[in-house]
Design a protein that fits this description.
The complex is a heterodimer of chains A (310) and B (216).
Chain A lengths: L2 H27 L6 H25 L1 H22 L8 H20 L3 H4 L2 H16 L6 H24 L12 H26 L14 H17 L8 H29 L14 H23 L1
Helix pairs in contact in A: 1-2, 2-3, 3-4, 3-7, 4-6, 4-7, 6-7, 7-11, 8-9, 8-10, 8-11, 9-10, 10-11
Chain B lengths: L5 H18 L2 E4 L9 E5 L6 H8 L2 H5 L1 E6 H4 L3 H10 L2 E4 L10 H10 L3 E4 L18 H8 L4 E8 L1 H4 L13 E4 L11 H13 L11
Parallel strand pairs in B: 1-7, 2-5, 2-6, 3-4, 3-5
Antiparallel strand pairs in B: 6-7
Classes of the chains: A mainly alpha (310), B alpha/beta (216).
Pfam family, one (chain A): CTP_transf_1
Protein name (chain A): Phosphatidate cytidylyltransferase
Keywords (chain A): Nucleotidyltransferase, Plasmid, Transferase
């Protein structure tokens, strides 16, 4: 366990402690029963404690722990996604294959660091095999729709998310043995940006970015959140092989991608008439409600770092 | 048969863990509380997993005194099925075949109720394999209600289980499920059989999500 890891961990505990104290004071001064915003804030902070604890435990087990953690995140996310899609009996084998074969194989390929295969396994082989299996079952009703929904689901929930643990395998010169910290950097900036966008939006939000999709996404929240999260990313440069400026720019990029991830997830939920993906994480909704920004940020961040630093 | 055996309790707890891992099942108590008097939980039926889902949603104490009503013709066929239904699970087996049956199904179910067991009951009488959300109810629910009017009839809408484990499937597809428990029904004085069964069916259907297949 390096000093930097300890610093990061203590920093997170400090931030959460401050958040819990602020929420406790707000709750104490507010009229009872608590307004729903405050209730939700308390639930969210409590869930953050649990998530930080979960991620910390995974980090203790190193690369294997993080891969297992994200395989589980993919499972939960895919389950939430498929629940909202149109499935027919003929899709059974494809669906079972997504859960029982695609998830384990994709994460195993990351474990053995076979970049050439894990980067094309889903978009080439699975994308061809899945419609073939569905077609073999012979049910053509809404075929195109069903196949597209399955492919988009496996792309978001498994392929994109698997690029988070894949960061640990990048052979960046001078960064040996510090791959986990790069993951911590990405998660901290993207999730930090979500939280900061929420705070800036609640405090200053006036002008909606996409009123037809989400009432809670405002330009004030977006700009304030991404700017402050990028500054935070620059301040966390010591976790990474980057200079402070590079760290800030990469953080900004990851946060902008994260914003689009949240926007797309909101559009899907709006289309299906649900508010949240599920109820796994109290106060936040489902796994995808928490991971949507990471879904879009992870592969882009991964490939830029891979291109420019290895 | 009163009180669950150790084996039944252990397998019920294990099935509950499994059901939660695969389906993340959540109970929605819309019109009643988890604790109540002796009950008949009546639910839509399309999958073998249905009664596991309802049982998982119950409080462990209630789960311990609740048995599922199942078809004897199916569960007594073969040694494995007989072991599952008789030893592993808490079931009340009734014979659905009018011609060959030896025991009156109503008497078997009433004996279980009188022994202090709540029942999970599928009033359609069989698994629904049609595109219709709910088949016509058979008379069983009415006969139970008429014979034991003090027992609460709780409608339970099971959502998505037919997608997780349809008839003939062995491996479950992980999808999120919910069980919506509605307000309890009672048979009105002098209520006609058909009127009551229609009312019960409507009450159960009212708990279903919207037509486009998305959850509420």
């Amino acid at each position: 366990m390096s000093d930097d890891t300890t610093c990061l961990f203590l920093g997170l505990v400090a931030v959460l402690t401050v958040a819990s104290l602020v929420a406790a004071i707000l709750s104490w001064r507010s009229p009872k029963p608590l307004p729903s915003t405050l209730d939700n804030l308390n639930a969210r902070i409590k869930a953050w404690w649990i998530m930080v604890a979960g991620i910390s435990v995974a980090f203790l087990f190193g690369k294997g722990g993080v891969i297992l953690l994200f395989a589980f995140v993919s499972f939960a996310a895919l389950r939430e996604y498929v629940t909202l899609t149109n499935t027919r009996r003929a899709d059974r084998w494809t669906l079972l294959g997504m859960f029982l074969i695609v998830i384990p194989v994709q994460y195993y390929l990351i474990w053995i660091d076979w970049y050439g295969l894990y980067s094309i396994f889903i978009p080439v082989y699975c994308f061809l095999a899945m419609p073939a299996i569905t077609a073999l079952r012979g049910d053509t009703s809404r075929f195109l729709e069903r196949v597209s929904e399955q492919q988009w689901g496996i792309m978001l929930s498994v392929y994109c998310l698997s690029h988070v643990p894949a960061l640990v395998t990048l052979p960046i010169p001078g960064n040996e043995g510090r791959g986990l910290l790069l993951i911590a950097f990405l998660i901290a900036t993207v999730q930090g940006s979500d939280v900061l966008q929420y705070i800036f939006g609640k405090l200053f939000g006036r002008h909606k970015v996409a009123p037809a999709i989400s009432p809670s996404k405002t330009w004030e929240g977006l700009i304030g959140g991404i700017a402050s999260a990028s500054l935070m990313g620059a301040g966390l440069y010591w976790l990474t092989p980057f200079s402070p400026l590079e760290a800030g720019v990469l953080a900004a990029l990851a946060c902008i991608m994260g914003f689009f991830g949240g926007l797309v997830a909101s559009a899907i939920k709006r289309d299906r008439g649900v508010k949240d993906w599920g109820h796994m994480i109290e106060g936040h909704g489902g796994m995808l409600d928490r991971a949507d920004s990471l879904v879009f940020a992870a592969p882009v961040f991964f490939h830029i770092v891979r291109y420019a630093w290895t | 048969m009163s009180g669950a055996s150790l084996l039944q309790r252990a397998s019920a707890a294990m099935l509950a863990v499994l059901a939660r891992a695969v389906t993340g099942v959540r109970p929605i108590w819309a019109g009643t509380s988890p604790n109540g008097p002796l009950r008949i939980y009546f639910a839509n039926h399309a999958s073998h997993g249905d009664f596991i889902l309802v049982s998982t949603c119950l409080h462990p104490a209630e789960r311990g005194r609740t048995a599922a009503v199942a078809g004897a013709d199916y569960w007594n066929a073969g040694r494995v099925r007989r072991f599952i239904a008789g030893r592993l699970l808490r079931t009340v087996l009734v014979e659905r075949n009018w011609v060959e049956r030896r025991a009156d199904p109503l008497a078997v179910m009433l004996a279980a109720l009188d022994a202090g067991e709540s029942l999970i009951f599928f009033p359609e009488g069989t698994r629904n394999m049609t595109e219709e959300p709910l088949l016509r109810f058979r008379s069983g629910l009415y006969n139970l209600a008429a014979a034991r009017p003090q027992v609460e009839l709780v409608p339970c809408w099971i959502e998505n289980m037919s997608r997780v484990l349809p008839k003939g499937a062995f491996l479950p597809v992980p999808l999120l499920c919910r069980v919506v428990f509605g307000a309890p029904l009672k048979l009105e004085d002098g209520e006609d059989r058909k009127v009551f069964l229609d009312r019960a069916r409507t009450a159960l259907l009212a708990l279903a999500p919207r037509k486009d297949g998305t959850p509420q």
